[in-house]
Amino acid sequence: SIWQILEVMVLSALAPLSLGFHAPMTAVAPASRAAVRMQVGYVAPTAPGVAETPLARGNAPLGIDSSILVQGGSLRTWSYRSPSVEQVQVVLSTEGRPLDADIELWQGPDNTPCKMRVYVENGQLRPFSAVVETPRGPNTIAIRNIGQVEFPLAANVVADNVDAPSAECLDTRMTIQGGALRTYPFDPTVDSVQVLLKTDGRPLNARIELLQGPNNNKQVIELYTEDGLDRPFFCILETPGSGNVVRVVNTAPVEFPMTAGVVPNSINQQMSSDAVLGGDVVLGGDAGW
Hints:
Elements: H1 2-39, H2 54-57, E1 68-70, E2 75-80, E3 87-93, E4 99-106, E5 114-120, E6 128-133, E7 139-145, E8 153-158, H3 167-171, E9 174-176, E10 181-185, E11 190-198, E12 204-212, E13 217-225, E14 233-238, E15 244-250, E16 258-267
């Protein structure tokens, strides 16, 4: 009949349109699979004869330096669940730019038994290195770069081969009353200095400054510890050049005295302490013509 003929003609006309409608779906399928592979971290196999790079493997290259880059305004944490980790060493450095960071020890919810604010004028010349006591784990070390985005820093926290104060540093400790300060000048041959602060079990509030010249702060550490006997503070300050003076201030009230030991850590035997014409100036001395 006429209706059957018209139905056949309409179906034959719609067949190419249906094929054209389904064709793009088959073409998009490989792209969608590639997008899914990118989301799940799929890495295509390398061609035969081509060396497989660490980026192609999806793993970072294994190196000796385990430092983590902390951008300005960001936070990184290191957690230690084992109670056998009783102390860790924190090392901060930059590529020559200033360093400004907050370091906190977290133990349990809303409990910060130790925290410090660190400023270094040149993080490459004077990297920051301190030992944080972490008894009775689990503990978490939190490092926040409070500098601007233009000042990233490299942070490393290790629990093995931690620095320890020398016998001279332990034997030469002196009492600093609350609100008092004490200065320790050093010879130009001294490359680094040990600083040990401790109390009899009372809270420890102190400010450590490395000066090179009149009121010229090269490094500043503002420290708080809830128990200076259970969590003493120990650090090593790099002191390149001449005219270095370490100033320790007890910022706590008079009821909270502390003991401080500041001694040389390493000495450069090749550096001469005499004045050199055209070199460093020695205060109170004149260079002969």
